[in-house]
Amino acid sequence: MANFSAEQKIFIVRLYLEGKHSYMDLQKIFEVSYQMIQGLVRLYQIQRSRWI
User: Taking the C-alpha atoms of 19, 25, 31 and 36 in order, what is their torsion angle to the nearest 10 degrees?
Assistant: First the structure.
């Protein structure tokens, strides 16, 4: 898996949260695991104020 910057991680999470893409879509687009995206979304939801 490629290393992503904080900005890239936020971009991926926002694509999901805005309803534009599913986990499966993002998995294919960014060539990362479903679990990695799911984990980023969960982390974002828990620590939202730190990500902004």
Answer: 50
pLDDT tens digits, 9-50: 999 999 999 998 999 999 999 999 999 999 999 998 888 767
Full domain range(s) for residue 46: 7-51
Residues 12, 4 contacting (CB under 8 angstroms): yes
Q: Report which DSSP code applies to 20.
A: S
| Entry pTM | 0.80
Number of structural domains (the chain) is: 1
